[in-house]
Amino acid sequence: MNFEKAEFESAAGLLNQLPDSTVPEIVFSGRSNVGKSSLINKVLNRKSLARTSAKPGKTGTINFYKTPDCRLVDLPGYGYARVSHSEKLRWAELVEGYFHAQRKIGLVVQIIDMRHQPTEDDLHMIDFLLHSGLPFVVAATKSDKLKKTERETQLQLLNEIFKQQLEFIPFSAVNGEGVEEIRARITAVCSK
Ligand code: GTP
Ligand code: MG
Question: Which of 44, 53, 55, 72 should be mutated for ligand 1, with most atoms under 8 A from CB?
Answer without folding.
Answer: 53
